[in-house]
Specification:
This protein has about 220 residues and is mainly alpha-helical. The protein is built from ten helices and no strands. Helix 1 crosses helix 6 and helix 7 packs across helix 8. The longest helix has about 30 residues.
Length: about 220
């Protein structure tokens, strides 16, 4: 039998989930500065007062949305079980699944774009590393195994790989309107996405097996 306190706790948790969902959509559409708490409240089944009760301020609400989005993709990356796959297959899976994830969760790239305009003010301080380090540790392990097995030869770190893949994924979301306007290319098209992902996989796997560029020519003192 559920007591009143337990039911109230569950109701509050559901209310917070709804606020986060609606607020994330709102921040995605209009950015941080364009967002209004009263407009967010109007799109929920709760009130502006309850939003402030749950999150304290618009600033903290945006922080919660951003952290929720990062936590979701970290859980997704963990679910790929890259440690269980051979290095080359793990990298291909990571590239393909990451591009697909961003394609189907465009709010993440839009929230990150808004946060960059704020100079990452909501990602500083204690606990920020939890939002980023897990995927880097996973990728470092994949790349280390690849080197041990002779599959990869380039000196690439987990951070390097993550930045390249995330840059490609985010660009497809945040720059889709300008690419469509300038070149008539719809990056949101499923067929285009599949074609581009194939190219990205080949490009990145080729990068990982590339040799270091040669140094300055040695003329032997001639």
């Amino acid at each position: 039998m559920v007591d009143a306190a337990g039911e109230a706790t569950r109701d509050l948790a559901r209310t917070k989930e709804e606020i986060l969902r609606v607020a994330s959509e709102h921040f995605t559409r209009v950015g941080y500065y364009g967002a209004r708490v009263d407009e967010i409240a109007a799109e929920t089944s709760t009130t502006k007062r309850m939003i402030y009760y749950c999150f304290g301020s618009k600033d903290e609400l945006f922080r919660a949305c951003l952290q929720d989005a990062y936590a979701a993709i970290r859980r997704f990356e963990a679910s790929l079980h890259l440690a269980d796959a051979p290095p080359r297959a793990a990298v291909e899976r990571y590239v393909r699944e990451t591009l697909e994830y961003h394609h189907s969760h465009p709010h993440l790239a839009q929230l990150v774009r808004a946060e960059n305009l704020l100079d990452a003010a909501h990602l500083t301080g204690d606990g920020a590393d939890v939002l980023g380090h897990p995927v880097i540790e996973i990728l470092d392990d994949v790349l280390a195994r690849g080197h041990e097995e002779g599959v990869f030869t380039a000196e690439v770190t987990g951070v390097d790989l993550h930045l390249v893949v995330t840059a490609l994924a985010n660009f497809r979301v945040t720059n889709a309107p300008t690419v469509r306007a300038l070149f008539g290319v719809s990056m949101a098209d499923d067929a285009r996405l599949a074609r581009d992902i194939d190219q990205y996989v080949e490009m990145i796997l080729g990068w990982l097996v590339s040799s270091a560029p040669p140094g300055p020519a040695d003329d032997g003192g001639a």
